[in-house]
C-alpha cells in the first residue's frame, strides 16, 4: 500500500492507504473526501476531481497529458500544480504524496 494524504479545502487531512494501480480520485471517493465530485467516474471527461499537487511532489507526479490539459481548462482556479486526480495513478514512488482539494470544483 502507498500512503497518500488528501487535504480538504478546510484543512482536514485524510491519510489514506492506497492500492497501487488505483487513482487518487478513486481513493478520495472511497474515503469520502469532501470536494472531490468525480462526476464522470474517472473518464477524464470533466474537471470535478481537480486537485493541487503539493510542490514537493510535482516532479514525481509528472505533468498532465494533452487530454487532461484540455479538461483542466474547465477547472476552477487552475494553478501550475493542478491535476485531475483521476489521472494520477498510485504507485510506490508516490508514497507520502500530498494533494490539496480546491475551494470548489467547476
CATH superfamily: Beta-grasp domain
- Our Rg estimate from Cα atoms comes to 12 Å
How many helices? The count is 3
The first-level CATH class is given as Alpha Beta
Number of domains: 1
Total strand count, please?
Answer: 5
- The low-confidence parts are none
**Helix share, percent:** 10-25%
* Global mean pLDDT: 97
* SSE pattern: EEHEHHEE
Query: Which CATH-level-2 architecture?
Result: Roll
Terminal Cα span: 31 Å
CATH fold name: Ubiquitin-like (UB roll)
> What gross morphology would you assign?
globular
Could you characterize the architecture of this molecule?
- The radius of gyration is 12 Å and the shape is globular.
- The chain has a five-stranded mixed β-sheet with strand order 2-1-5-3-4.
- The longest helix is centred in the N-terminal third of the chain and has 7 residues, at 24-30.
- It contains three helices and five strands; from the N terminus they run ββαβααββ.
- It has 106 residues and is α+β, with helices and mostly antiparallel strands.
- 17% of the residues lie in helices and 22% in strands.
- The protein has a single domain (2-100), classed as Ubiquitin-like (UB roll) (Roll).
Amino acid at each position: 500500500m502507498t500512503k497518500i494524504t488528501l487535504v480538504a479545502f478546510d484543512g482536514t487531512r485524510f491519510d489514506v492507504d492506497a492500492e497501487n494501480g488505483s487513482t487518487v480520485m478513486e481513493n478520495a471517493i472511497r474515503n469520502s473526501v469532501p470536494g472531490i465530485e468525480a462526476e464522470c467516474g474517472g473518464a477524464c471527461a470533466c474537471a470535478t476531481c481537480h486537485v493541487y499537487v503539493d510542490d514537493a511532489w510535482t516532479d514525481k507526479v509528472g505533468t498532465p497529458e494533452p487530454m487532461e490539459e484540455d479538461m483542466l481548462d474547465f477547472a476552477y482556479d487552475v494553478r501550475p500544480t493542478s491535476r485531475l486526480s483521476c489521472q494520477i495513478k498510485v504507485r510506490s514512488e508516490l508514497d507520502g504524496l500530498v494533494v490539496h482539494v480546491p475551494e470548489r470544483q467547476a
